[in-house]
């Protein structure tokens, strides 16, 4: 609550700085912005940045350093016999001190009670000091920037430089996050491949990762052939694409080229509602409605369909993915220049010929991007597969049988009592690494298609 109050106060000071800077710039220009090097709002941004950024930096540094600093000071005041308990018991004691100080829990001993009181006092004192420092810096920055405002001051250049640095920082964070994800997958996967050969993992046909993870347990040695997982993922994704791509693409063509504006204004939002439905709801729909219907329909035709099957999961997943294909394809088709349509009509082509021979080829890069996004969505889906296709790692191409996917097995491997030195748990990272390379390959293919056809139609 105190931090929220401080944040609100700093935002109010920043807003005041913006108004003061903008007002002073207009006053110095006599109400004529043409006399200023930069627009008045840039002078306001200049003052606001000097007011807000240094104070925000101080608060951020405090938030990062406060937990470790407070803990060090609290532990330094503990009795020597308490410090000799060991790291694990000391961690438990400090957690109890925090709970007593923050949530008013009953202390188990006078030592904990005294430490909790010191914890509260330290946090209050440090927050008061940081809040005073931040407000002083914000006020000083406001006064400094306000005094620098002149008609010839290049505030636009300075504000844009700050924005550029911010954008570069955001890009750097995104890049390092991606690198961190890849390295974490790679290092843990290498640990896994020290116990299981790459050949067995990529080409083995038996998946049974259950094994003893502690010396006092009895379990199998485990089998880590991931081909059944890859096959199940490909089968369900293929069924989903067979459902989603034709329906999504045809609906996009109709709404973009044939539908009346009133119908389009109603139909497109209704179709996009499907994208906002939680996947667990689709899973319930698949398990409770679609699966019994498909099973009864198959029985009436003399077919044996399992209660959990790839067909049900793929069909429901395809329904879920339709908005991804439809909405993106509709936007791309609508963005095709009208001169292409008019040129086709001028040569005597019909509406359908124009759509098939002009509009769709011109929109193909965007359509491919939408389809690949849908493929990635299908590969990464978990809940529908768990509830509709099951957990059985069967190597089959029969859509009527139960299968499982890579993402489902990743979740299964990381749930429960796990030890991250066990091949059973480390297999999840190897599966994640495979998914990463599959997604990378899809992106490379998409870039190739986009560049090829962009050269043709630009």
Note down, in words, how this protein is organized.
This protein has 16 helices and two strands. The chain has 458 residues and is mainly alpha-helical. The chain has a two-stranded antiparallel ribbon with strand order 1-2. The longest helix has 39 residues. The protein starts with a helix and ends with a helix. The model has no long low-confidence stretch (mean pLDDT 83).
Set down the secondary structure blueprint:
Layout lengths: L1 H27 L11 H37 L3 H4 L3 H17 L6 H39 L6 H39 L4 H6 L3 E2 L14 E2 L2 H32 L2 H16 L2 H22 L9 H25 L3 H9 L4 H29 L3 H6 L17 H8 L9 H35 L1
Antiparallel strand pairs: 1-2
Helix pairs in contact: 1-2, 1-5, 2-5, 2-6, 4-5, 6-16, 8-11, 8-13, 9-11, 10-11, 11-13, 12-13, 13-16, 15-16
Brief account:
The protein has 458 residues and is mainly alpha-helical. It folds into two domains: 152 residues, no CATH class; 235 residues, MetI-like fold, CATH 1.10.3720.
* Strand line-up of the largest beta sheet: 1-2
Provide the CATH top-level class of the largest domain.
Mainly Alpha
CATH topology heading of the largest domain: MetI-like fold
Termini separation (Å)? 55 Å
Radius of gyration: 31 Å
Structural class: mainly alpha
Question: How much strand?
Answer: under 5%
Q: What's the CATH architecture of the largest domain?
A: Orthogonal Bundle
Number of strands: 2
Q: Any idea what the CATH superfamily of the largest domain is called?
A: MetI-like
Instruction: Compute the number of structural domains.
Output: 2
Share of helix among residues? Answer: over 70%
What can be said about the biggest beta sheet? 2 strands, antiparallel
